[in-house]
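Q: Predict the assembly, please.
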Amino acid sequence: MWSATFTITALAAVAAVAGAVISGSLRGVAVGVLAAAVAVLLLTLLRRLRRRQRATWAAFEQHEREVERRILGYQHQLAEREAEWADRAEARSAAVNGALEHLLRVRLSAAMAGSPVPPAYGDSELDEVAASLVDGVLAEATSALKRADEREESLRLAVVALSRRVQTAAHSIQEHVSLMADRHQHDPDVVESSMRVDHAAAQQARHAQSLAVLCGEWPGQQWQEPLAMVDVVRAASARILAYQRVEVSGDQDVAVAAEVVEPVIHLVAELLANATQSSPPATSVPVTVRRVQRGAVIEIDDGGVGMDEHRLEQAREIVSGRRRAGLGDLGEIPQTGLAVVGHYVRRHGFRADLSESPYGGLRAVVLIPSKVVETVEPPEAIAARPAARQATPVVEAGPRTSVDTASADSPPAGATLPQRRSRRGQAAAAVPEESAPASSSPTPEQAGSWMGAFIEGGRTGGEPDPAGTS
Amino acid sequence: MTSPDDPGRTYRDTALRPYVLTKGRARPSRNTISIDTLLIATDPAPSLPISAGRQERALLAMCRGLLSLVEAAARLELPVSVVRVLASDLVDSGHLTARAGSPQSPQLSRDLLQEVLNGLRAL
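A: Predicted assembly structure:
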């Protein structure tokens, strides 16, 4: 456009000059020159304008490039920041994930197990809000656990208290019917009825005792003297329904120490209960007692159908004490007895296992370690002794904390009580084996008391007064 | 513990309940056995079954010489009612022989015994 303007201006100037020349007049020349000058001026002006316009254009273009460059710069920065944010977000999420996983697998587990809770994992990478949320979850969970523990503990205490009451009541029934049987010992009907009541109460006491033991309490009964293991098994059978099916054989002189008499009786009672319940009613349940290198063993066989492999494995876990089964873990009744066995095994270091029995059902084997195994007189030796006190358990019925009856060596608390000995017995003492009574010449008081006892028709001789009876 | 009904009686708890020893029986298999029956082991004594309890074994062993039932009960520290059942079983199985109470032993009256007791207490 500029070149066209320039050309037109130049042509106009040339035309003006040419017109003047052609007209030949001076005035015409002057007009032509003027026109040419105007044209040149215009031309110069135009050129200048054009230069300026070019410069402006260039500046504009430069500015435009600058803007573009800046935009690019911004875009680059933005991308960088975006990447940075992405990295940060990823790191944060990783930290949160890590903290959550640590919370779940380590801290919550520790809290649930009741062990000290380790500090938060990678706290530095976690911002405050997330860290406080994680700690909040832990605090909430810990307090929920604590509340659950408290509820469980109060439930446990309630069950223990109730089972103790039932146990004490059952022992009281046993005591009263025993005394009744003593008073009417010449009336077989009364004696037989008292036996039935005694038996029912013994089972009731066992169930209550099982509850207490499953709640982690001690058995609630204690005996003062060792008891021959064959008698332990018979004492155990006294606490189950089908006691008449239990047949005990084996070493007559191996005994368990006083402190574990009750635990072993209860443990064997539970195994006998399972054995009699899981075998046909007409079959007997043979029990063998045997001394072994590491102590003594009680073997209980039943002629039932046994258990399938899976259930047997579960039952073995429980009786061996490998799996601790508390009150809350038990569904079925048979498991209760096994869990009681497991508790005693863990507490006293016995060993118990179940396997297939050659009789077809199950064989339960209990090993009593030698540190609580003793030797007692064989029954034949008891026969050779004078009619003195012999090693039999002393009462400790009910949940009592201590027994202050006299020990076996000192005169029993009931020394004033009848040492039952019949006049006829003294006559019989002339027989060679019975010559021993001379060694235990009674004091006048004793003589008087046994005589009194004889007249009263008291039940057994030398009964110590069971101290602390309820 | 003293019986509320009878202060003279005491209760001594035992893990071995009487019904286990007698297998639930209160009546002896034979009525002829009473507290003054004399017992003596059969000679030669057949061996007891392996499942025989310590009480039966002791009873049999102490009856190698003549022994009254009541004395046996005292030595075994068991109620007479229990020992009667045990002894009766052993008589049935041919391990023991029962004889009626010795006629030589004087049958003292309760009054006489009470007198003796009073005399002893006065000592």
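DSSP finds eleven helices and eight strands in chain A. Residues 2-77 of chain A form one domain.
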